[in-house]
Design a protein that fits this description.
Blueprint (H helix, E strand, L loop, with lengths): L7 H10 L3 H10 L13 H14 L3 H10 L4 H15 L1
């Protein structure tokens, strides 16, 4: 797995708005990720980073992004994810 640095703003924004490990775990589970490999720490930035590492390994970043969008109405999160997708797909 090679980390995509364009995900850094996504991780930061999600961590600022979705902080509870239980919610982060649910987002990953609903996205279909193999959650048994993720040890949550209660530190939202670290937990989101681990989740995106797993998503990259499973080629499921879009599934994770789609699921994350369902869990927050924060405009900043939606805008950051849209910006990531535009940059990635251009």
């Amino acid at each position: 797995m090679i980390w995509d640095p364009r995900l850094n703003p996504v991780v930061s924004t999600l961590a600022a708005h979705v902080r509870r490990s239980e919610v982060i775990d649910t987002v990953g589970t609903e996205a279909g990720l193999a959650m048994q490999y993720i040890n949550f720490t209660g530190n939202a930035p670290a937990d989101w980073h681990r989740l995106f590492e797993r998503a990259l390994d499973q080629e499921a970043v879009d599934s994770l992004l789609d699921e994350a969008l369902k869990w927050t109405a924060h405009k900043e999160v939606h805008a950051t994810i849209a910006e990531y997708r535009r940059g990635r797909d251009s």
